[in-house]
Amino acid sequence: MTKVVYFLCLCLVFGQVSVVSAAEVMEEDMLLGSSLGGEINETASSEDKPVENDKIASFVSVITKPLSLFFSADDEVETEEGTKETFLERSTRLAEEGSLEDQMNLAYMYLYGTNGVKADYDLAFKYYSMAAAQNDAIAMNNLGSLYFSGIGTKKSPKKALALFEKAAELGNDDAAVNLAFIYLTGGTKDMARNHKAMKLFQKAATKGNKIARFMLGYAYYRGFVVPQDYAEAFKLVRSVAVDDARLDEAQVVLADMYISGYGTVQNYQKAISALKGAVAQGNTEAFMILAKVYTDARISMPNKLMAHALYNIAASQNIPQAEEKRDEIGKKMQLQELVQAQEMAQQYQAAPSELTTYVRQTFGTSIRHYIDNNMVKQNAENQ
C-alpha cells in the first residue's frame, strides 16, 4: 500500500535564500580551509543514532514518496474479464469498492495533481476520508492535516486534533509529532498540554523520529517541562545535526553547545564547523552568528572577507543590522578585498538537507520558537 505521510503546517513556508555553495571561491577561509558553507563530517556514536502545486506546499509536505504510482491516469490496463480500462478508471472503481491502497493513491494524485490527474482538493479529501474510515493511521494523519489547513474542506482544528489523537493512539509517530506541536501552541494557560506534548516527543524520539529528537533535545537544553540536562541535550541535538539528517536548527544549537561547553567539552573548531553546516543550508541566523565569530576573532582568526560576505548575504534577506554591519566592515577593507568578498556572496547558494527543507515547508523557519514562546509567556506570568 502506498504510504504517503503529511505533517500539518503551523507557520509560513520559508522563503528560500537565493544565495550557493561557493567551494571554489571560498579558499580565503584560512582557519578551516573550507568553503563558506560546509557539512558537519562528524560521525555520531551508535547511541546517538536514531532508529530508523504551490498551495499544497504551504500546508502539507510529503516525506514518504508513493511507491506504487507507476502509471499515468490514461494508461490502459486489462481487467479480469479481458476488457480495457484506464488506470484512473480502475483505481476509482477499486477505491469505491473499498480498496485502501487505491483510496490512498487517488488521494495523493488529486492532492498534488500527479500521474496525469488534475489537482482536485475535494476529491483528495474524499478519498482520504474513505481511507481514514478504514482505521488507517496514515490516512487519519493526512486527513487531519487537510482539516487543520482547510484543504478540500472547511478548516476545523477540532476535527484535526481528534484525528491526530486517534492516529497517534494507533502508533503513528508523525501524527504524534503533529499533535505535540498543536499542544505547544496552547501557551501556559494549560500547562498540562505542554507536558502532553513532551511525552509525545519522548515516545516518538525513542522510535527515531528526528524532529521529535530535536525538540526533546532542545527541551533538555532549555529546561522546558523536563529538567535541564545538557548532556542529554547534546546527545539528542547532535544526532540530528550530523550525518544524513543535518537539520540546520540543530547545527546552530550544537554550535552554541560547543562554544559554551554545554554537555560536551569546549571545541571552537567543531562549533565553527556546525555553523558552516547551517550556513550551507541558508540558515540566516547562522549567517549572523558566523559573521560575528569572524569579526570578533574570539574563537577564530579574524576574517574580514568571510564576515563581509556573510553579512552581505544576510542583508539581501533583510536580516536586521546585517546591512549596517556589512558596511562597517567594508569601510576597513581595500577595494580588491571588498570586490572579492562581494563575489563570494554573489556565488553562494543555499543547499538545505532533505530534513531541513521538510521542516521549513511544514513548520516554518524555526521550530524552537514553540518552546521559546512558551517559556517567555511562562516567565512573564511568573513575574
Fold and architecture overview:
The chain has 383 residues and is an all-alpha fold. It contains 18 helices and 2 strands. Strand 1 and strand 2 form a beta hairpin. The chain is globular and about 80 Å long.
Give a quick set of tags describing it:
single chain, 383 residues, mainly alpha, two-stranded antiparallel ribbon, 18 helices, globular
Write down the overall geometry.
globular
Please, what is the average pLDDT? Answer: 82
Alpha plus pi helix count: 18
Number of strands: 2
Strand fraction equals under 5%
**Terminal Cα separation, in Å?**
54 Å
Secondary structure: helix percent: 55-70%
Q: Uncertain segments of ≥5 residues (pLDDT<50)? A: 9-35, 43-67
> How would a crystallographer describe the biggest sheet?
2 strands, antiparallel
The SSE string, one letter per element, is HEEHHHHHHHHHHHHHHHHH
- Radius of gyration (CA) equals 24 Å
* Arrangement of strands in the largest sheet: 1-2
Class by alpha and beta content: mainly alpha
What is the structure about, briefly put?
Helix content is 56%, strand content 2%.
Secondary-structure blueprint:
Blueprint: H1 54-57, E1 76-78, E2 84-86, H2 87-96, H3 100-112, H4 121-132, H5 137-149, H6 157-169, H7 173-184, H8 191-206, H9 210-222, H10 230-241, H11 248-260, H12 268-280, H13 284-296, H14 304-316, H15 322-330, H16 335-347, H17 354-363, H18 369-382
Antiparallel strand pairs: 1-2
Helix pairs in contact: 2-3, 3-4, 4-5, 5-6, 6-7, 7-8, 8-9, 9-10, 10-11, 11-12, 12-13, 13-14, 14-15, 14-16
